[in-house]
Amino acid sequence: MAQLTEVTAGLAFPEGPIAMPDGSVILVEMFRPSLTRVLPDGTKQVIAEVPGGPNGAAVGPGGLVYICNNGARFFPVDMDGLTFPAGSGPDRYRGGSIDTVDINTGKVTTLYTHCDGIRLAAPNDLVFDTEGGFYFTDHGYSHERTATLTGIYYAKADGSMIKEVVFPAHEPNGIGLSPDGKILYWAETWTGRIMRRRVEGPGQLAEAGMVDTWQCLYGFPGFQLLDSLAVDADGNVCVATLVNGGISVISPEGELVDFFPTGDILTTNVCFGGPDLKTAYITVSGTGKLLKMPWKCAGAKLNYLNV
């Protein structure tokens, strides 16, 4: 097993970790639901309660934390000592949104709920570009025999513009940019695929045809489900892999070059921090823990965070 160290435990389905410059890690607890700061000694501090289902987080302009809120798409089910996310019915589900949190005051503001008149279903993860905008995935919502078909969006951080840039995408989850910002990557949970598109400008992606095989960086064999991801400075896509329980590393050339098991089949996210960005922080949500381990190279710098 990888050289893992437990940072803290007792988290209510942690996701969306952000390694802050002060050494703390800010993350969401989907089933609390809250935005929480974890100090280096493992102490937890709730920054804000975030109604719905906070699912992903990123630091944006002005130091605000932007949150993908799935609108309580899931509710917790405990099985065999692990917490699993089960689909919510219409009595719990409230519709998705993009929210912001002022980490100094705890103020929560809803920024987006719709795009072109269509309600966001379940925003999942996001990444900022250099131009004050961000790409985010909408994982979609399903209940009984009905499921929404969703995609990838681009929005401005000030709330002035949102548009769909990829449709359809099949339950898209984690999302990230290459170190040079020229390629957008995202993970599809149930297909087990890492997808990609070339970035031609802020919110402008290259078109992809039905038989454009380049757009699929890697497809996982067997029954492997994908969650959130981060990109390292070498351009590798480091994706949280469910069922197998760990972080899979896919090279920019589309090869599986490494796998780091965590011991939790619900390994959901990874980010990079520390003074040299060579510490990987990993959320393992089945057991409700934040782990860390040394990484062989630095993580890619994130806009508005690692400046």
TrEMBL record:
Residue ranges of every copy of the SMP-30/Gluconolactonase/LRE-like region domain listed in the record: 13-285
InterPro entries from the UniProt entry: 6-blade_b-propeller_TolB-like (IPR011042), SGL (IPR013658), SMP-30 (IPR005511), SMP-30/CGR1_Lactonase (IPR051262)
One Pfam family cited in the UniProt record for this chain: SGL
Protein name: Unannotated protein
Organism: freshwater metagenome
